[in-house]
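Inverse folding, one chain.
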């Protein structure tokens, strides 16, 4: 089990288009791609700056808080890490590792209340 580095920072936004505009025009970040997940009422946009990625999240239904949501750490051997976090009694968002596209991930709530996402990219 090994943490490789920071993958992205997730920020919840109310207005996706305005947020993309500000991150692009003011901070000079480039829009990498967008994703939409109607089944969970979520829109995502990924912006890249020098050495960093920001994931903007917008809920399409209901109210949600805005601002910093999570830190995502890229890892290897995610199954071992999941068991280690579970054994340490760190609260998990899901009961098992989630899979989406070419990634496997899980969220854990650490002692200060911060959400950490652990993400492993599938080897191709």
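Residues assigned per position:
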């Amino acid at each position: 089990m090994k943490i490789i580095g920071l993958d992205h920072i997730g920020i919840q936004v109310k207005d996706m288009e305005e947020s993309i505009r500000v991150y692009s025009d003011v901070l000079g970040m480039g829009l990498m791609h967008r994703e939409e997940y109607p089944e969970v009422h979520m829109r995502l946009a990924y912006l890249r700056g020098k050495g960093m990625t920001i994931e903007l999240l917008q809920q399409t239904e209901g109210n949600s808080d805005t601002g910093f949501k999570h830190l995502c750490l890229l890892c290897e051997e995610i199954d071992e890490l999941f068991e280690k976090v579970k054994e340490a009694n760190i609260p998990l968002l899901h009961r098992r590792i989630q899979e989406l596209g070419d990634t496997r991930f899980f969220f854990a709530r650490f002692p200060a209340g911060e959400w950490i996402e652990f993400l492993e990219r599938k080897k191709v």
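The chain has two helices and eight strands. The chain has one domain: 2-121.
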